Amino acid sequence: MANTKEIKDRINSIKETQKITNAMYLISSTKLRKAKKELENTEPYFYGMQAMTERLSRHISGVNSIFFRNFDDDPDRDRTAAFLVITADKGLAGAYNHNVLKLTEEEMSKYKNTKLFVVGELGRKYFENKHIPIDEEFLYTAQNPSLHRSRVITLRLLELYETGQIQELFIVYTIMVSNAEMQPLLHRLLPMKEAVAMSIPADVYQEEFQLVPSPEDVIKAVVPNCINGYIFSALVESFCCEQHARMTAMQSANDSANAILHSLNIQYNRVRQAAITQEITEVCSGAKAQRLRKRKKA
Fold first, then answer.
1. Sheet harboring 113-119: ordered strands across?
2. Nearest 5 degrees, angle CA 34-CA 141-CA 26?
3. Does residue 241 lie in a domain region?
4. Does a structural domain hold residue 7?
5. Cα(2)–Cα(246) distance, rounded to whole angstroms?
6. pTM for this model (two decimals)
7. Quick check: is 124 in a domain?
8. What is the pLDDT of residues 4-19, one digit of tens each?
9. Would the N or C end of the chain have less CB density within 10 A of its end CB?
C-alpha cells in the first residue's frame, strides 16, 4: 500500500490538473455563448438563401444547369466526389472529431475517385497518418469562421465543379440536435436536386415568378451564394458543437477528478490512521517494556 507522501503527491497532482480542466471549461463555455449568438444571427440568412433556392428549383424545369442534377438513381460511382470535412484545430473534445472522420471514411469508400478538402488541424493530421491524400487544407478557419473564409472555400470548390474536375460535392460536419446531443451529418451541396413537379389544381393561386435577365443568369448568381451560406453556417455550427463537446468533456474530467480525490482522501485518512495507530502501539509497547524492566530490577 502506498504511504501518505505518495498519496499526498497524487492528490496534489490531480488538483493541479483540475485547475486546467476548470479553466478550459470556463473558456469553452464563454466561446459557446459567443458561437450560439453568431449561429442565431447566421440562421436567417442561411434559411433565406435555402428557401430561395427551393423556390427557384420549382420554376426551372427544362433549364439546363450544372447545378441541378439527380444522381440518386444512378448506380455509377466512377464520377469524382469531393468531400469538405470540418474538424477542430484542438483535441480534448470527446468524440467530436472522431465521429466526423469516421463518417467521412465510410462515405469516401463508396467512390472510386475522391478529392478531400479539410478544415481543421486534427483532420489534417488524421488523414496524413492514414496516408490518405489531401487535395487542399484551409488553415485557421475552424477557430475563426467568417464569411470571408467560407467564400474562399466556396470559390475554390465551385471552380473545380464548374471545370468538371469534380461531379459531386459533399460537406461533412457536426450539428446540434439538442443541447445534450450532437451528431455528424453528410450533406450533398452539389448538384442540387430539382423539386418534384406536382399537379396543382386549377383553382389554386400560383405565384408569378419571373427570372430576369434569364434563368441561367439567376441560377449562376443565387446558387453560389446559397453554397457560401451553407458552408458558413456549417462552420459556425461546427465551432459551436466543438465548444459544447469540449465543455462536456471538461465537465466529465472534473467529475472524474472529484471522484478520484474522494477515493484518495479516504485512502489517505486510512493510511494516516494506520500510521498513528502503529505509533501509539509502538509507544505503548515501549512503555510496557520499560515497566517490566523496572519490575525485574525491583
1. 136-138, 113-119, 80-86, 168-178, 181-190
2. 35
3. no
4. no
5. 34
6. 0.80
7. yes
8. 888 888 889 999 988 8
9. C
At 167-196, the pLDDT tens digits run 899 999 998 887 777 899 999 888 887 654
> What average pLDDT score do residues 236-263 get?
89
Q: What DSSP string runs through 155-195?
A: HHHHHHHHTTS-SEEEEEEEEEEETTEEEEEEEEEESBPPP
Residue where the block lists cell 517490566: 292
* Domain harbouring 117, CATH code: 3.40.1380.10
Here the cell at position 174 is 457536426
46 bridge partner residues = none
Per the domain annotation, does 58 fall within a domain?
yes
- Left if phi > 0, otherwise alpha if psi is -120 to 50, otherwise beta: which for 62? left
**Cα end-to-end distance, the chain, whole Å:** 44
d(CA 288, CA 281): 10
